Amino acid sequence: MRPLIKDGRIVADEWDLLSHEALDDIDLTPAGPRQIVPLAQYGTHAEVLRTQGQRIAILLGPDDEPDAAAPYLADIGLVAIHFPSFTDGRGYSTARLLRARFKFAGELRAVGDILRDQLYFLHRCGFDAFSLRADQDLSAALNAFGDYAWAPLAGMVPNEGRGRIGQSSL
Amino acid sequence: MRFHDIGARARLGDEGEPGFEIFVGGGVGRTPMVGHCIKPFLPRAELLNYFEAILRVYNRYGRRDNKYKARIKILVKDLSVEGFAREVDAEWRHTQGAGSLIPESTFETMEAFFAPPAYGGARATDLAFVAPRAENRPFARWVERNVAPHRHPGHGIVTLSLKKTGVPPGDATADQMDLVAELAERFSGGEIRVSHEQNLILPSVALRDLYALWERARRNGLATPNIGLLTDVVCCPGGDFCALANAKSLPVAAAIQARFDDLDYLFDLGPLELNISGCVNACGHHHIGHIGILGVDKNSEEWYQVTLGGSEGERTRLGRVIGPSFAASDIPEVIERILQAYVRERLAEECFIDTLERIGLEPFKLTVYGERHEAAH
Ligand code: SF4
């Protein structure tokens, strides 16, 4: 599986991302693989899945309200947010709300049409893991976190103490 | 400010504390709209919290199904200005006083980036400025048009014109850019600002240095004394460079500049904003030009629609179309007639946009369409 950038390093991806077309592949057995499933799917099986020790993660699309994921956040360790195209910025807001309003402290992963030039801003909004589009050069993309020599300090600091990258802090 | 999705105007509050007046829902392009104030005064520390609240509201209710409707201006219209403001306030309450509050220390750090230069003892009466201005007419004219007053005595704000006739508006060569950098280094504390009118500004030049600066700039095509005049055209790249264009825009700008190259006439016409866009995306901001020209496509031919009365700043308004569009070759003549109407109708010292506002579009339409106008009746 293609590696991803997490906490400023290139690491192996240990998760399967189930697309909407492959929903039947969801494995409900406690010893099953790590899977990221769409919110609605998680909701359907929540009673079973919440006992499985964070083996299942939630995927949010741009139309998903973060409020709808709120009841499950305590039971999961990863939320992936899907960007169908880089021009659709709603995922930034979703991330901010998960961190600031719902105090989600697990991994926040950006997936989909993720390009090098977005990393700095995604990171400032609280993402700490990035699954880039297939054509992106991961080692070159690491530089993105240092794109700005100075950034204004403002309010809460979602990434501080959990893998702060480069100069940025929010 | 009022032609953007979100606009913020810096101002002081009742106690003299710094903050912003916030506008939303402006924009040019296909659906031009003037933005509305939703917060007369926002303390500056809340700026990011409040902007985030605006985006939250847009994300929740905005239209993403249709890219022409996926804009804050469309949502403001749907919810009404008051409705939108209420939603933003409700959202803002979640973060107010916390969230992304900007600490005072961050403002202090930012302010340090804008420390004023060392002004020295320059004075407005310095002979190196007063003497050439009295003796050299071209220099005096350039000072009149291209140098604005500075709040620090003995200094001026210089605009280097990138509007020389025949050069695409806003273009500069690599050599010119090198020279501008050198001039900024030597005369303006190392600062250059780019204006949305497509010129370059040296924000703080001692008046006694102006003559030396002018000579260098003039020899390198950067001192056309036309800032704020008809030939200071704002123009998009248009059909020569842009894949989205309906029509070319640069040759139209060049034809207008060539036709009106008499400086005395230009100075007599006074302040006049002319904006040209090659298509409805309005990168040349034709809606807000006193005179606006828009390239349109009619049966695969290039035509140009003319608007009058647009304006930015204090008296923000959108221009209105004067009538059927024209071929490119007619445009200089059309402009000529518009100007004739202005010169005929103006009161002493009245500038173009004021005359237009006073007498309305009709006299201009009559002068431009003359016979056609009457023939149609
Ligand atoms: S206004 Fe149209 S033609 Fe001009 S630069 Fe913009 S998109 Fe291109």
Question: Which descriptors apply to this entry?
Answer:
A: 170 residues, TIM Barrel, globular, B: 377 residues, Sulfite Reductase Hemoprotein, domain 1, 3 domains, five-stranded mixed sheet, four-stranded antiparallel sheet, 13 helices, 12 strands, binds iron/sulfur cluster
When the domains of chain A are counted, the total is 1
Question: Strand order across the biggest sheet of chain B?
Answer: 8-9-10-11-12
- CATH architectural name of the largest domain in chain B: 2-Layer Sandwich
Structural class of chain A: alpha/beta
Number of domains of chain B: 3
Q: Order the strands across the largest sheet of chain A as they lie in space.
A: 2-1-8-7-6-5-4-3
Q: Overall mean pLDDT score of chain B?
A: 93
Strand composition percent of chain B? 15-25%
Give the chain pair forming the largest contact, with residue counts.
A-B, 16 and 20 residues
How would you describe the shape of chain A? Answer: globular
Q: Which CATH first-tier class of chain A would you pick?
A: Alpha Beta
Bound molecules: iron/sulfur cluster
The end-to-end distance of chain A, rounded to whole angstroms, is 32 Å
Radius of gyration of chain A: 16 Å
What does this structure look like?
The complex is a heterodimer of chains A (170) and B (377). Chain A has 170 residues and is an alpha/beta fold. Helices cover 21% and strands 19% of the residues of chain A. Chain A has a single domain (4-22, 29-159), classed as Aldolase class I (TIM Barrel, Alpha-Beta Barrel), CATH 3.20.20.70. An 8-stranded mixed sheet of chain A has the order 2-1-8-7-6-5-4-3. In chain A, helix 3 (66-69) links the parallel strand 5 (56-60) and strand 6. The longest helix of chain A is centred in the middle third of the chain and has 11 residues, at 90-100. The radius of gyration of chain A is 16 Å and the shape is globular. The N and C termini of chain A lie far apart (32 Å). Residues 156-170 of chain A have low confidence and may be disordered. Chain B is of the alpha+beta class and 377 residues long. Helices cover 38% and strands 17% of the residues of chain B. Chain B contains 13 helices and 12 strands. In chain B, the strands form 3 sheets. A 5-stranded mixed sheet of chain B has the order 8-9-10-11-12, covered by helices on one side. A 4-stranded antiparallel sheet of chain B has the order 4-5-7-6. In chain B, strands 1-2-3 form a 3-stranded antiparallel sheet. The longest helix of chain B is centred in the first third of the chain and has 15 residues, at 47-61. Chain B is globular, with a radius of gyration of 23 Å. The mean pLDDT of chain B is 93. The A-B interface holds A 62, 65, 88, 90, 93, 96-97, 100-101, 150, 152-156, 170 and B 48-49, 52, 55-56, 59-60, 64, 94-95, 98-103, 105-106, 109-110. Bound molecules: iron/sulfur cluster. Iron/sulfur cluster is lined by residues 236-238, 242, 244-245, 277-279, 281-284 of chain B. Iron/sulfur cluster binds at residues 236-238, 242, 244-245, 277-279, 281-284 of chain B.
